[in-house]
Input
Amino acid sequence: MTMTRRTFGALALAGGATIGTPAIVRGQEPGSKLVMGSPMPSSHSASTFIAAAVDEIRIETRGAVDILFLADSQLGSEADMQRQLRSGGIPFLVASCSSLQSLANVAGMPGVAYAFKDYGQLWAALDGDLGALIRAALLKLGMTAFKCLDNGFRNVTTSSRAISGVGDLQGLKIRVPPSPLLTSLFQLLGAAPVTISIAELYTALQAKVADGMENSLVQFEALKIFEVQQYCALTRHSWDGLWVMGNSRVWEAMAPQHREIITRHFDAAVQKQHEDFARRDVALKASLEDKNLRFNDVDRSQFVQALRKAGYYDEWKAKFGPEAWAVLEKYTGSLGG
Output
């Protein structure tokens, strides 16, 4: 496990709660804590609904399952936390689809550029064969995935100029998460993507390490991006979500009745978060405009055409493989490639 000052402080707060697998099995006893990490801000709905769920789990199990939820990257970067999850150092984790692609390539498939036209297509895929494909790949790595929280369709913000078309992206230093799909997307559109962790993002934008970023409106609000960015192009170029996950060895060692309670509360939290996220996403544009973030719509078809011409869909069909690509297109229709 990578030990940083932030990680050490979180472990101290947990009272030594990041314990190895044998101790976690004994941790079914009342009063012991299990740790759940997340890279998301504590104000994001992905955090607030999971925090409420772990409280409900603690109450229903009468303290036999006591999960300490630590948001705001308190246990390190996403890569750090994923390593800790796989080793059993963290029993539970919230992890983004985009970051998980570095471990299991198919985990990134929901983020293929302009693949999903709406949430109807997306949730059908993740509740169906595409979700099953991703869960199976993660399980081989010792990670048991529950359901996927929503982090929204992503848009581009900048500090220097508005983005109206593909040409405006040329040479733009844009922050992306550690996602091969998003890095490829912006490179092929002529931008200069820079990978920066979410915990360091605000400071990096303030210091002009990057001139722009891309994410959902909800994340812009949670991270207060409007304080360091001026423009937002509604590109809706990709979707990203967050899998609720557990270490598979820890999960299988838990009592069946506890697994049922945990699954039920996590699944209910995800559903509530989906509904809340959809409501907030509609209302946030006006709220962010009041905070002086200037919005503009774009012709998304020109971005799709530019990506097809640059070979983006051919490249990713080859990387994911024709069988996995066929699973994706079962829900999206033909994407090219």
In short: The CA atoms of residues 313 and 336 lie 6 Å apart. DSSP finds 15 helices and eleven strands in the chain. The radius of gyration is 20 Å.
